[in-house]
Amino acid sequence: MRLVIGNRNYSSWSFRPWIAMRHAGIDFETQVVPLDFTVDNVHLLEHSPSKRVPVLYDGDLCIWESLAICEYVAERFPEAGLWPQNPAMRARARSISCEMHAGFSALRNSLHMNMHRKPAALAYHEGTAKDIARIEQIWADCRAETGQGGPFLFGAFTIADAMFAPVVSRFHSYQVPVSPVSKAYMEAMAALPAWREWEAEALTEDWVIPGSEV
Ligand SMILES: N[C@@H](CCC(=O)N[C@@H](CS)C(=O)NCC(=O)O)C(=O)O
């Protein structure tokens, strides 16, 4: 399998399936196709029917959209336990994953993922503050109700954690003040070997996207 991703430093959507697949120990190649907004990323059309990354190729099969890729690998590698075993917990994990995939646009548009950024606070608008509050509520509820047996949202690491991974990175880069529960969750995420591998690669990249530097 081959996962086509954007710049590791900025491509938050690419980070999600990559960390899920790497953490699960799935064998795949990574192909980096740098984003270039000066030419409207037309080169992405060579790799992706939607002109967006990430895209997963499994032989001739092409799967795009981060959450669809995660769903595909969870089905193809059931032993990896990428969703919770318990049906009620699995349904909840899907609810919060869909909520992340479909929402939080104020946060995503104002605090871009940028692992190179020297961590420092940045003023943000009310919409972003509301998104942050909702995310912290999701994390607190999961840690209290479904997080037994491990430091992640459903105890063991699942796709739900992968979907929130770029948010963890953003909260760190922009020094968003968080609760002790969120802080502990963020530390567990950043300690994952897969996280460290992605971050180390991101820090070697020297591409700069001016619009993502805030
Ligand atoms: N809903 C898509 C979003 C993918 C997306 O927007 N990817 C960005 C990179 S993080 C992209 O390819 N941008 C290229 C462009 O907008 O031209 C997903 O979940 O995969």
The CATH C-level name of the largest domain is Mainly Alpha
Number of strands: 4
How do the strands of the widest beta sheet line up side by side? Answer: 2-1-3-4
Count, helices: 8
How many domains would you count in the coordinates?
2
Give the names of the bound compounds.
Answer: glutathione
Structural class comes to alpha+beta
Taken from the alpha-carbon principal axes, the silhouette is globular
Q: What are the low-pLDDT stretches, counting only 5+ consecutive residues below 50?
A: none
How much is the radius of gyration in Å? Answer: 16 Å
CATH topology of the largest domain: the name is Glutathione S-transferase Yfyf (Class Pi), Chain A, domain 2
Largest sheet: 4 strands, mixed
What is the topological layout?
Layout: E1 2-5, H1 12-23, E2 29-32, E3 55-58, E4 61-64, H2 66-76, H3 87-102, H4 105-110, H5 126-145, H6 159-173, H7 180-190, H8 193-204
Parallel strand pairs: 1-2
Antiparallel strand pairs: 1-3, 3-4
Helix pairs in contact: 1-2, 1-6, 1-8, 3-6
The structure holds glutathione (GSH).
Glutathione (GSH) binds at residues 6, 11-14, 35, 41, 44, 51-54, 65-66, 101.
Descriptive account of the structure:
The protein has helices at 12-23, 66-76, 87-102, 105-110, 126-145, 159-173, 180-190, 193-204; strands at residues 2-5, 29-32, 55-58, 61-64. The chain has 2 domains: 2-80, Glutaredoxin (3-Layer(aba) Sandwich), CATH 3.40.30; 87-196, Glutathione S-transferase Yfyf (Class Pi), Chain A, domain 2 (Up-down Bundle), CATH 1.20.1050. Helices cover 48% and strands 7% of the residues. By secondary structure, the protein is of the alpha+beta class. The mean pLDDT is 98. A 4-stranded mixed beta sheet has the order 2-1-3-4, with helices on one face. The chain contains 8 helices and 4 strands; from the N terminus they run E-H-E-E-E-H-H-H-H-H-H-H. Bound molecules: glutathione (GSH). Glutathione binds at residues 6, 11-14, 35, 41, 44, 51-54, 65-66, 101. Residues 6, 11-14, 35, 41, 44, 51-54, 65-66, 101 line the site of glutathione.
